[in-house]
Write a structure and sequence with these properties.
This protein is α/β, with parallel strands linked by helices and about 350 residues long. Helices cover about 50% and strands about 10% of the residues. The longest helix has 23 residues. The radius of gyration is 22 Å and the shape is globular. The relative contact order is 0.09.
Length: about 350
């Protein structure tokens, strides 16, 4: 059995104590971190299918989700920023007046296991809190609402009403679920999807986000090129896959890229934007030098920066135009700044 097959099996049967060393062994033998992550996501897809066929039940699905989470903890230091949540961002919460969280927690774990970054707002969440969560994470595309009491179902309507009143409804896909909820009620309040269980919710979220991505690709098809580079002295590869998956043409200059090379690429490709990455504190000086040289020749091309050691304040100090904390936020920025 290969290491990846072992990882797949351990997630499938929910072996939380064994998955971490298995993931580490796969990495030690040269497996790519994203490949290991996708293997675990595949295992959780299989778990979800078994649950829907009633071959397994909530306890088995729960232990598999916990094993997946343990495996991701090992992977995170090896994954580029945003890779673990590259499927997209989901805000989830149990609505106001309802303190039940077991079902919501299981849904959150299944969605996270499907490759999403999950922002769990907890229980008894007022409508305004969902809006605040969006304002803090404007690249979120899915909101999932849970209610376990018939008396709190109107709180779901309140969330939809709040989104409508602020002109935000069209920015989201809203999913609802919980024991008293059904498709008829979802239609009544204007939700986009009703899902009866955690496995179906994760599957629906993936399909819904894929629809968003396809729509985005149509608008992004002619947007580019974008130059991407990891600055001189830094050997950490920059991730271009997410931008490319959204339809952007990316010119990847690779790693350890001198400022002069970025300038040459600017003259050659006439990009719509330039993205620079630095993962080491010792290389941010190279980033600043690159930006200085670019600004001297053309101040119209937007420059966005990112990397584990950077902050929004530092980006301003070095005269960058935009800062993105992860790959998904970079996509959102490109959508906003490139005509």
């Amino acid at each position: 059995m290969s290491r990846l097959d072992e990882v797949f099996k351990l997630v499938s049967i929910g072996k939380s104590k064994l998955i971490a060393p298995a993931v580490q062994a796969a990495l030690d033998e040269g497996a790519d971190a994203v490949e290991v992550l996708n293997t675990m996501i595949g295992a959780m897809d299989e778990v979800g299918e078994k649950f829907k066929r009633e071959e397994i039940f909530v306890p088995e699905m729960l232990v598999s989700a916990k094993a997946m989470k343990k495996g991701v903890e090992v992977l995170k230091p090896h994954l580029a920023s945003g890779a673990a949540g590259a499927a997209g961002k989901v805000i989830i919460g149990t609505v106001a007046g309802d303190l039940h969280d077991i079902g919501k927690n299981l849904v959150a774990m299944m969605i996270e296991s499907a490759g999403f970054e999950v922002m769990d707002l907890g229980v008894d969440v007022p409508a305004e809190r969902f809006v605040e969560a969006y304002q803090a994470n404007p690249d979120t595309k899915i909101i999932a609402l849970s209610a376990l009491l018939t008396t709190t179902m109107p709180s779901m309507q309140a969330v939809l009403d709040e989104l409508n009143s602020r002109g935000l409804r069209e920015k989201y896909i809203v999913m609802v679920g919980g024991a008293p909820v059904n498709q008829s009620f979802a239609d009544q309040i204007g939700a986009d999807y009703y899902t009866p269980d955690a496995a179906t919710c994760a599957e629906t979220a993936k399909a819904a986000f894929s629809t968003i991505k396809d729509t985005f690709k149509e608008t992004a098809a002619n947007k580019g090129p974008i130059i991407m580079a990891t600055v001189h002295g830094d050997i950490h590869d920059i991730v271009k896959v997410v931008l490319e998956s959204y339809g952007y043409k990316v010119i990847d200059l690779g790693k350890d890229v001198p400022p002069e090379t970025v300038v040459e690429a600017f003259y050659k490709h006439k990009p719509k934007a330039i993205g620079l990455s630095a993962l080491m504190t010792t290389t941010v000086v190279s980033m600043e030098k690159t930006i200085t040289m670019l600004k001297q020749i053309n101040d119209m091309c937007p420059i966005f920066v990112g990397g584990a050691v950077l902050t929004a304040d530092f980006a301003k100090e070095i005269n960058a135009d935009y800062y993105s904390k992860d790959a998904m936020e970079a996509v959102e920025l490109m959508n906003q700044i490139i005509d």
